Amino acid sequence: MTRQKFVGWILIVVSTAYLVYFLKVRLFTPGPFIARGEWFQVIGCIATLMIGTINIRMAARAEAKHNEAKRDVRR
Fold first, then answer.
1. What is the pLDDT of residues 9-43, one digit of tens each?
2. What is the spatial distance between Cα 29 and Cα 71, in angstroms, rounded to a whole number?
């Protein structure tokens, strides 16, 4: 597993864990109103989730190019 793919998975896991916490604890339970800063954190986590997904896809594309270049050298 490349470093880029590893970082992408860490970003996805951490942001998903926070989003699940936010949904479970802050959104679906009664309590005080959700502050503006918390909404900003949720939007940031969604952006982080997208960046992690992009990281994984870019790592897969780079790996495919690397494998293709290896295959062309063998010919």
1. 999 999 999 999 999 998 898 988 989 999 999 99
2. 55
pLDDT in tens, 44-73: 999 999 999 999 999 999 999 988 887 877
pLDDT score at 71: 80
19, 21, 25, 74 from 38: Cα distances, Å: 11, 12, 12, 54
pLDDT number for residue 75:
64
Distance CA 19, CA 8 (A): 16
Q: Any residues with CB less than 8 A from the CB of 28 and at least 6 apart, and which?
A: none
Which residue matches tokens 């982080």?
Answer: 48
Placement of tokens 């952006």 in the chain: 47
